[in-house]
TrEMBL record:
Source organism per UniProt: Levilactobacillus brevis ATCC 14869 = DSM 20054
Binding-site positions, S-adenosyl-L-methionine: V80, G105, I126
InterPro entries linked: Alpha/beta_knot_MTases, SpoU_MeTrfase, TrmL, tRNA_m1G_MTases_N
Domain tRNA/rRNA methyltransferase SpoU type: residue ranges: 4-147
Name of protein: Putative tRNA (cytidine(34)-2'-O)-methyltransferase
Top-rank EC class of the record's enzyme: transferase
Length: 170
């Protein structure tokens, strides 16, 4: 079982680079659904991902239907949207035999509305104050969601950070 962060037509290379870095640090697969708003050779993308880009399992999909065709159990697909009724902490993301997929929309328009309506039961949201901001940053949102998933999975396969020797902290 593996976790996936999927980005639908991402526009900004820095967001995708930051998400790639999160994926590298959490052993999460990154699915990129075309068209992309940048080249994967973009300097901003590489800078945001630093030297971790080659440590990420990146999978490219020609379009949304092609991405959906790769999912063996659609019940494990979650659509992240501020318009959802269910909070991201409510579903049970425990380890099972199927991968978990978290699909995030394009930075400017989100996921296609007809698609969202068709799969409303799969939608999850991160609570936010809509009177002050339009939306949370995409890379922050991906990190928030994947760390809740990992928390529920007892941080399976993630090493604990080694403690500094106490004498170096003084």
């Amino acid at each position: 079982m593996t976790n996936h962060i999927a980005l639908f037509e991402p526009l900004f290379p820095a967001n995708t680079g930051n998400i790639a870095r999160t994926c590298a640090g959490t052993d999460t697969i990154l699915d990129l659904i075309k068209p992309l708003g940048f080249s994967v050779d973009d300097a901003h993308l590489k800078r945001a991902g630093l030297d971790y880009w080659d440590k990420v399992d990146v999978r490219y999909h020609e379009n949304l239907p092609a991405f959906l065709d790769t999912i063996s159990d659609l019940s494990q697909l979650y659509l992240v949207s501020k318009f959802a009724d269910q909070d991201y902490t409510e579903p049970d993301y425990q380890v099972n035999e199927h991968d978990h997929y978290f699909l995030f929309g394009k930075e400017t328009t989100g996921l296609p509305e007809p698609f969202m309506r068709q799969h409303a039961e799969k939608c999850i949201r991160i609570p936010q104050d809509d009177t002050h901001i339009r939306a949370l940053n995409l890379s922050n949102s991906a990190a928030i969601v994947i760390y809740e998933v990992l928390r529920q999975q007892q941080f399976l396969n993630l090493e604990r950070v080694h403690q500094y020797p106490h004498d170096k902290l003084k």
